[in-house]
Amino acid sequence: MGQTRAAGEVRLANAQDIETAGLEILVGFKGGRPVPLDAYTQSGGERTTATMSFLLALQQHVRSPLRAVDEYDIHMDPRNREMIAKILISTIKDANAQYIVITPSQVTFAQENANIVAVQNVEGKSAVREVQ
């Protein structure tokens, strides 16, 4: 979260009852104190940024060599989209894994060492091309 200029923490809620136990994600943006992540307090882009930060923090504990991220940036503004794309690239540079990133947005990985395949619906047919 520090890379997104925000603060956050994760804690176990209702640890004493296995039926209601769960994770609670708290985030604070723009200097605000961390509050529970929900649909009423943060914007869609802030929720997505917090969720991606949480998922990327977990990646060091995932043993699978293949990971996919689907439409992570759909609710982000261009600044947050670019920031999370950079964090994603920096997270996976030294990882011993392959990532598949699926997005309807403009590709933000063009300057990185990444293979980019664009699939577009052109006149009712899928057009596939590799982006250089």
Structure explained in plain terms:
With 132 residues, this protein is an alpha+beta fold. It has one domain (2-131): Rossmann fold. It is 23% helix and 32% strand. It has helices spanning 44-58, 78-92; strands at residues 6-13, 22-29, 35-36, 66-70, 98-102, 116-122, 125-131. The strands form 3 sheets. Strands 1-2-3 form a 3-stranded antiparallel β-sheet, covered by helices on one side. A two-stranded parallel ribbon has the order 4-5. Strand 2 and strand 3 (35-36) form a beta hairpin. Helix 1 (44-58) runs parallel beside helix 2 (78-92). The two termini are 31 Å apart. The mean pLDDT is 84.
Q: Can you lay out the helices and strands and say which pair or pack?
A:
Layout: E1 6-13, E2 22-29, E3 35-36, H1 44-58, E4 66-70, H2 78-92, E5 98-102, E6 116-122, E7 125-131
Parallel strand pairs: 4-5
Antiparallel strand pairs: 1-2, 2-3, 6-7
Helix pairs in contact: 1-2
